[in-house]
Amino acid sequence: MSSLRLLAWNVRGIMSSTVCLSSLLKNTDCDVSVISEHKLKKSSLHYLSTIEQGYTCIGKAEDLPNSYHAYHGKGGVAILYKNTLQFSVSEIHGINSEKIVGLQIKSKSNGSIFIFGAYLPSDDSIDNYRNELNMLDTLVSYYCNYGSVIVAGDLNASCRMKDRLHSNQYKSDELQKFVKRHDMLFSGGKIKHTGPDYTFITKKTMIDYFLVNRSVLGQLRSCEILDEGSISSTSDHLPIIVELLIDNNPHRIMNSFGKFPAWHKIDDKHIRNYQEFIDVPLELLTDRIISDNVEVNTVNTEIEIILHAAADSVIPTCGFNPYTKPYWTPDVKKAHQTERSMRKRWLADGRPRGMSHESYKHYKKAKYEFRNVQHAAYEQYIQKCYDDINEAAECDIRLF
């Protein structure tokens, strides 16, 4: 079994916590991180994607009044997730709130997990708090019908009765009603956690949470609140880390130097060998299906194994080149080879300068022709992309 690690942390201004967050992501190896109160303006949200290599960010910043002239923003929430996640990962659009951001993680074996990062209002207005919580209520009510739902972040209220004296009681009442209405579980409640019994250091209260519905409870492997001093931190909030069990490895191997089937290199002999290799295993599998009434999922898995084994045995292989340009046609390749050949002759001739030298003249001519061929191939490729987009817009709106 593999696991998916999730982090929630109020950073109290990302500019002062950049080094801390980068170190935390490296040390905990978290796959998805909910960051609240980053205090960035909308024009600076791209900064979140530069904090740690290998992470993509979706984030929101609060609108600021015209009279606000500070160099930093207010509030803000974001979700960082690893680029290596092999699941279908997409932002949940249509959330009409600056304090809530959503991410959908979809896999074949575990279904959909909807993660909502939230930074609920910290002011004393119960109306503002109730409005944002109602938005979160609507999202949870809708998406719980399609998969597991997780709400993470700084909720600026407590789900626990013992924190009422040190937190806003009216907000806490609203949050507790929300949790009870959706039968959500949280650390400090039915979810047992390790580490301190609080997340807000100043008042020793728990206002940062992972709220999960019961469908997630069976996957929950651990929940930990990191101790004060365990990380170098400029924030007065403690990070929370949860780990979910999943059936398969959540990451794909990046920059692999493995070999892949080169289907473009096969000939009739390869095809015959491939057919002979799969005939017997498929025949045995067919007999099992007829006699044992094998499940469809098992059949699909075994067919996939048979086909992969046949391809690995008889099909020629090639390496994956991540730098291949899609417009690099045979004509471009030929012109490039000619240009390289002429350059070698020019180098062997002592690198003379001036059109009076034959090697220099031929090299410059070959280089000029290569650039023209390459430019023409690129323009042709871009035009084809535009044509495909236009055709899709007219014929297939989903593809478009």
List the helices and strands and how they pair.
Layout: E1 2-10, H1 14-28, E2 32-36, E3 55-60, E4 77-82, E5 88-92, E6 100-107, E7 111-119, H2 126-143, E8 148-154, H3 169-181, E9 208-212, H4 214-217, E10 220-225, E11 240-246, E12 259-261, H5 268-292, H6 296-314, E13 317-319, H7 330-348, H8 358-395
Parallel strand pairs: 1-2, 7-8
Antiparallel strand pairs: 1-11, 2-4, 3-4, 5-6, 6-7, 8-9, 10-11, 12-13
Helix pairs in contact: 2-3, 5-6, 7-8
Describe what this molecule looks like in 3D:
With 400 residues, the protein is of the alpha+beta class. A hairpin with a 3-residue loop joins strand 6 (100-107) and strand 7 (111-119). It folds into three domains: 2-246, Endonuclease/exonuclease/phosphatase (Deoxyribonuclease I, Chain A), CATH 3.60.10.10; 259-319; 330-399. The model has no long low-confidence stretch (mean pLDDT 87). The chain contains eight helices and 13 strands. It has helices spanning 14-28, 126-143, 169-181, 214-217, 268-292, 296-314, 330-348, 358-395, and strands at 2-10, 32-36, 55-60, 77-82, 88-92, 100-107, 111-119, 148-154, 208-212, 220-225, 240-246, 259-261, 317-319. The longest helix has 38 residues, at 358-395. The strands form three sheets. It has a six-stranded mixed β-sheet with strand order 3-4-2-1-11-10, with no helix packed on it. A five-stranded mixed β-sheet has the order 5-6-7-8-9. Residues 8-237 form the Endonuclease/exonuclease/phosphatase domain. The record marks 156 as: Transition state stabilizer.
